[in-house]
Amino acid sequence: MTKKSLIAAVLASLTFATALPATFLSSPAQPTYASSAKAAAGSTVARAVKKTGDLNPSSSVQHFSKATYTKYSAYFDKQYNVDRMSKSSVFTKHRATVYTPSSQLRGYLAASMKTWNKSLGSTVFATGTKSHHTITVNFGTGGKDASEWDGLYKTNKLYVNKRHFYSPSYMLTVLQAISGHKVSAPKTAADKAAYEKYYMGFWEATITHELGHSLGLDHTPYQDDIMYAQSGDSSNSIKYSWTSSKAGNGTVAALTNVLSTRDVNRAKLTKLLGYW
Ligand SMILES: [Zn+2]
C-alpha cells in the first residue's frame, strides 16, 4: 500500500469506526449476575462458550451466576485470553482513579479513559489527584527492552515509552509496519496534518491498550481490537499462539483508538469475573 492509499484506508476506517460507539451507547446494558447462587454445570458453560465467536465473550456467556464465574474462572481466562492483571486495590466499586504527573501525557490519557468509559457506559476510569489515585501513568524508559514496547502495565503502574514518544521517526516506523511499505516523512501541510492525527491516535490507543490490561484483558491477534498484538505466546491463560495478525473488520485500532465489540465484551466478562 502506498502512503496515500494508507491514509485513505485509515481515514475510511476512521469514518467507519466512529459509527461504532453509538451502537454501544444505545445499548448500555451492563452485565448483571443471575440471582442463582449455584454454579452452572460445566457442560452448560462449555455449550455457551461454543456459541461465541473467537475470543469474543458475547451475550451467551454474560448471564451466569457469580458462583459460575468463580468456579470456571480459569476456563474463561483461557477461552478469552483474560486474567487478573491489577492488584485488588486498584478498582473499588468497579472504578479506578488514574493520575499522571506528566502534562505531556494528560490529554492522551483523558482521551483513553473516555474511550473505555463511553464504551462500557460508566465511569470505570476517573481522574485522580496526586494524593488520591490508584493507577499512575508516566513515561518509562524500560531499560534495554525499551525498543520492544510502546506502553506497559504492571500491577497499578502504566508506562509510556519516552524514547518512542519523542522520536521524530518512530511514527513512520509504525505506519510502515501497518502498511507493509516504506513511508516517507510528511512534507506537505496535508500530509503533516494526517501524520499528526496518526501520532495522536497511536499514543491514545497505546494508553487505551494498557488500561485494557488493567481490566484484565490480554492480547488478541485481531487488528481491529485495541488489545491486538503482533504475536502471542501460548501460556496458561492464552487460547492459542499466533505469529501473524487477523484483519477483523478491517480497521486498525492502534491508529484510531476505537474499541471493537470484542474488546468491550471481554471487558464485560472480566468485570463478571471480578477482575475490576
Ligand atoms: Zn499489551
From TrEMBL:
Source taxon at top rank: Bacteria
Keywords assigned by UniProt, alphabetized: Hydrolase, Metal-binding, Protease, Signal, Zinc
GO molecular function, one term: zinc ion binding
One annotated GO biological process: proteolysis
GO cellular component terms attached to this protein's record: extracellular matrix
Annotated Gene3D superfamilies: Collagenase (Catalytic Domain)
Domain Peptidase M10 metallopeptidase: 205-231
Official protein name in the record: Peptidase M10 metallopeptidase domain-containing protein
UniProt organism field: Lentilactobacillus parafarraginis F0439
